Input
Amino acid sequence: MAFLGSAVRRVVSAGWSPLSPFCRTSARSYSSELTKEKSVPYDKTLKQEDGASSGPTKPLPRSADVVVIGGGSLGCQTIYHLAKMGMTNVVLLERDRLTAGTTWHTAGLLWQLRPSDVEVELLAHTRNVISKDLEEETGLHTGWIQNGGLFIASNKQRLDEYKRLMSLGKVYGIESHVLSPAETKDLYPLMNVDDLYGTLYVPKDGTMDPAGTCTTLSRAASTRGATVIENCPVTGIQVRTDDIGVKRVKAVETPHGIIETPCVVNCAGVWATKLGDMAGVKVPLIAMHHAYVVTERIEGIQNMPNVRDHDASVYLRLQGDALSVGGYEQNPIFWDEVSDKFAFSLFDLDWDVFTQHIEGAINRVPSLEQTGIKSTVCGPESFTADHKPLMGEAPEVRGFFLGCGFNSAGKTGTNIYTYK
Ligand SMILES: Cc1cc2nc3c(=O)[nH]c(=O)nc-3n(C[C@H](O)[C@H](O)[C@H](O)COP(=O)(O)OP(=O)(O)OC[C@H]3O[C@@H](n4cnc5c(N)ncnc54)[C@H](O)[C@@H]3O)c2cc1C
Output
């Protein structure tokens, strides 16, 4: 059995990676090469054998009012909301299958309280859509789990910040409670509270299921008249210059035909820069490796809330009777040459980068030290210079909209800002 605690000690003391003794798969490298490993906490993805080579799942229309490019979280949210606004002649084009990029392996954490009113409203909207609206509209459950969220304050300033969040939440009707260390221990008996000032507990926070959410969004959009086409890569974007010299989107090119359109929404995740290049638009985001590990079973963890320790830069996500342990890498690995052949793929985890999270996680839930690692999940995610997403019309070309660069918060929203 491989334990989290031993991983830290070995890395720190010996200066070598703990990877091989702690994983069930034997031959792995430390490069940023893609791996086809599917050791993720989902039994199923939407991938189908030979899916990408079988041609588009529907015939392409000759024209559309809007073409959304990319069938991840953002693309599916975008087409759903366009359809709900009453636009029916809208098309989503996904190169592979829905969720194939980053979305399929996301941790899916949704925290409702963020430091600005706009973010709080957007998150409330997202939560409403995935926990209520979609189920009412489609009869399908999105996979939403409401297990609550717990923010950790290990200094007074952080607790003051959480008190402000609680006040903000009150304005928007979001239930939250500031808990003392003793109350936190009652709620989460496995937690070390010795170094805590307090916590902020939000009972209606929870976890989204990426596949379930995207399938349901796409179903609801289709019911309202939108068209979702998979196995259809966009290979070019035609731009025209109008009579007064303004550049405008004209059409989207694919190997299976051209769709005339005045408007595209670039929801292509880490591939969004490539789509931008096709139209002469600069998309300022950077692709990085981002990761979490899934533990073996932990006795007593069932039904616990998700935990976010901002000072340790760590999160603990409930994963059935285990935890996913992740964080925000301070020395991330950049994905310099973004590959187009990466559907449903992962990178090997770099333990030298990841170890910083383990220490914080073990401090918070000490039983993790003796807990084995079941699998690792390291995928690509886009980050921007100011940690804000790229949204709205690009200045270079009229009709070319961006919905990308979500800084590891894209699963939670239609339009979400980040709070790291
Ligand atoms: C390990 C990890 C954990 C995370 N945890 C969380 C979390 O807890 N909460 C949270 O909110 N966020 C989290 N995130 C971030 C979140 O998963 C992403 O922000 C989100 O999934 C991005 O969605 P997207 O639609 O922008 O991109 P993607 O899911 O990558 O979708 C882009 C799609 O575009 C398609 N595409 C690309 N090029 C083309 C083309 N030429 N033509 C047609 N289609 C194309 C791709 O195939 C892909 O399906 C996490 C990310 C990682 C890596």
User: Anything to note?
Assistant: The pocket of flavin-adenine dinucleotide is lined by residues 69-75, 93-96, 100-103, 106-109, 233-234, 267-269, 271, 275, 290-292, 343, 377, 379, 381, 404, 406, 408-412 (CB under 6 Å).
